[in-house]
Design brief:
Strand 2 and strand 3 form a beta hairpin. The chain has one domain. By secondary structure, it is an alpha/beta fold. The strands form two sheets. The chain has a seven-stranded mixed β-sheet, sandwiched between helices. It is built from seven helices and nine strands, in the order H-E-E-E-E-E-H-H-E-H-E-H-H-E-H-E. Helix content is about 35%, strand content about 25%.
Length: about 220
């Protein structure tokens, strides 16, 4: 089974990662989920003290539950790792449940603060290995069924390094691995990978879109 202490700790760490990324690209962040008893999205992202984005952070630890293996489909569940091979049907429920939950929190916020109703909502996903597979297979056009969500974000690490490594010889790649040397490679980096919702009620600011890596 999944450890509640572990999942709670990682979820909080991921919220901090998302907050730092927004600040790194020049925005300020105000916590929303600690104001009052109603559940709300994590952050209000501001630019020059004006609301730019409403942000919900979702950590998905499991791609579902395997009744055959009696375990969550997750690298965090030792019951799955020790249960041998498994096969499960692709199920997008976990993705869509998280999107629906983000919208529920967003509606609570807008009900309390109607002036934020034209501020776009983004959902930042952090995914376990198996959940990542489900996410990659999820038809992105299905986002149109969630028009209150303007876009989905993920943290993209070391994209420039990977692009260089894709275009160097195998011998040079082995040399890099064997020497553990980053000489000649770009520095480590983190960026937002953005998937825009083409059916969103509210479009994202173009300068924010241009600050992200897009899926086009």
């Amino acid at each position: 089974m999944l450890s509640p202490d572990r999942t709670n700790k990682v979820s909080l760490q991921n919220e901090e990662v998302a907050e730092k990324r927004f600040k790194k690209i020049g925005y300020s962040v105000e916590r929303l989920d600690k104001q009052g008893h109603r559940k709300r999205p994590e952050f209000l992202v501001l630019e020059n003290k004006k609301p730019l984005l409403i942000c919900e952070v979702k950590t998905i630890f499991s791609a579902g539950y395997s009744h055959k293996n009696k375990a969550h489909i997750s690298t965090e569940d030792p019951d799955l790792i020790n249960s041998g091979q498994f096969r499960e049907e692709i199920d997008f429920t976990v993705i869509e449940n998280n999107l629906s939950n983000a919208i529920s929190k967003y509606r609570c916020l807008i009900n309390d603060y109607p002036l934020l109703s034209r501020v776009p909502l983004v959902v930042v996903f952090f995914l376990d290995f198996f959940a990542e597979i489900i996410f990659e297979l999820y038809p992105k056009d299905d986002l149109k069924r969630f028009p209150e969500i303007s876009g989905i974000l993920k943290i993209e690490s070391n994209r420039a390094i990977r692009k260089v490594c894709e275009n160097i010889s195998l011998d040079d790649l082995k040399q890099i691995i064997n020497t553990n040397s980053m000489r000649g490679l770009p520095p480590n980096s983190k960026e937002f990978l953005l998937i825009e919702n083409k059916g969103a009620n509210t479009k994202l600011p173009r300068h924010f879109v241009e600050s992200c890596v897009t899926n086009s």
